[in-house]
């Protein structure tokens, strides 16, 4: 088994930052958990097999989703709890866990994420033109959309391009966010349609548009 990945040793400071999703809170650290541009989204405990940190967080009965990016962890809670009571407990746990060099991942997710993105951009049954369009879309999402979405504690990933329709995955705080549909249509779709004429619409898995 590969050596488990931990954050760099040293004192850890953490602050909580609200996201557009009232059920999600972004915990920002002064430590690097992943390389820039790499993120992982765990919608439940069963999906978190590669992350001992996420597994520990799911032990809190109010934690419903865990998203980990370069220097923050977004936690989505169940609706019957209030953040005022939860933030101090979660902040204390994260600080203690990371300062103790607790394992973040069993295997670095970077290579797997890169391979998945490459596979999405170049499906075997797609024409060269569609593959080129897919790569343009991925580049636009990475350069213009992802940084803004990360500021809100989430991520957007490309899934497919077929017959003018772009399908994306919304992760972290963006999954289930009340404003996600508006952002998708008024922001992301308009950008892609303007920059890539082949795009007719953008849809996301997990939300109704």
From TrEMBL:
It holds the Pfam family Nfu_N. Residues 14-101 form the Scaffold protein Nfu/NifU N-terminal domain. InterPro entries: FSCA_dom_sf, Nfu/NifU_N, Nfu/NifU_N_sf, NFU1-like, NIF_FeS_clus_asmbl_NifU_C. Transmembrane segments: none annotated. Belongs to the NifU family. This is NifU family protein. It comes from Hymenobacter terrestris.
């Amino acid at each position: 088994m590969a050596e488990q990945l931990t954050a760099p040793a040293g004192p850890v400071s953490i602050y909580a930052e609200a996201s557009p999703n009232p059920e999600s809170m972004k915990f920002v650290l002064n430590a690097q958990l992943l390389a820039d541009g790499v993120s992982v989204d765990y919608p439940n405990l069963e999906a978190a097999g590669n992350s001992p940190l996420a597994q520990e967080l799911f032990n809190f009965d109010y934690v419903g989703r865990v998203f980990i990016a370069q220097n923050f962890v977004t936690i989505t809670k169940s609706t019957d709890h209030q953040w005022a009571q939860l933030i101090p407990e979660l902040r204390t746990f994260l600080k203690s866990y990371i300062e103790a060099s607790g394992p973040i991942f069993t295997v670095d997710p970077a290579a797997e994420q890169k391979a998945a993105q490459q596979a999405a951009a170049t499906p075997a049954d797609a024409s060269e033109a569609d593959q080129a369009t897919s790569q343009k879309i991925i580049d636009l999402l990475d350069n213009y959309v992802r940084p803004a979405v990360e500021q809100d504690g989430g991520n957007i990933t490309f899934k497919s391009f077929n017959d003018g329709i772009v399908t994306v995955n919304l992760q972290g705080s963006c999954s289930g966010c009340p404003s996600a549909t508006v952002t998708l249509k008024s922001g992301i779709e308009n950008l892609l349609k303007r920059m890539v004429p082949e795009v007719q619409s953008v849809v996301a898995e997990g939300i109704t548009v």
